[in-house]
Each structure stands twice: as structure tokens, then as C-alpha cells.
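WARN retry 2 of 3 for item q-0093 after timeout on previous attempt; input resubmitted unchanged.
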Amino acid sequence: MSCGAKLGGLSLNGVNVAKEAIIQGQVVREGVPVENAYVRLLDRTGEFTAEVPTNEEGHFRFFAGDGEWTLRTLAPRAEAVDKKVIAQTGSIAEVAIAV
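OK item q-0093 returned
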């Protein structure tokens, strides 16, 4: 991957992927990106750790610690969606979430 490559639509320019555990992805409804959905990062015990809104293209990103996490996605006119993901330093966990 070259510097500034767009994996999953988000620029990684300036991010040292080798030193980070990155969880990122896109929220879609019937194939259309969902802007301003909220994606929560929950730890192994279900405790809230962080939350970010999706951008205009439905993308989100977290820098997390190594281990198992749950992404809880909240979007208008949709049930909450939980998705398990494993974060590991030096890799990008790319997650697609349909609501």
C-alpha cells in the first residue's frame, strides 16, 4: 500500500498503519451510504469506549487497542446493528455494515 492510499474510501495519509490497530468501514442501507449514523465502539464486556458519526459517504474509523470489539451502529429508521471485529496492531479491520 502506498502512502495516502484510500482503503475503504478513507485516506490513510499520515497514519502509520504499522503502529496502529485500525477499525474502519462503511454503513449502507440498500447499497446507499448512510450519513450521520452513529457507530459505537464497545469493549469485550460491552462497555462503551467511543462513538463517531459516519461522514457523507457513510465511512467511519476508530483507532483501537488489540483485541475483540463490538461495533454498534445506530441509524435513523433502522434497528441497532452489532458486529464483532478483531483489532490488531499493524492491520486494518475493514467492516461493512448494512442497516
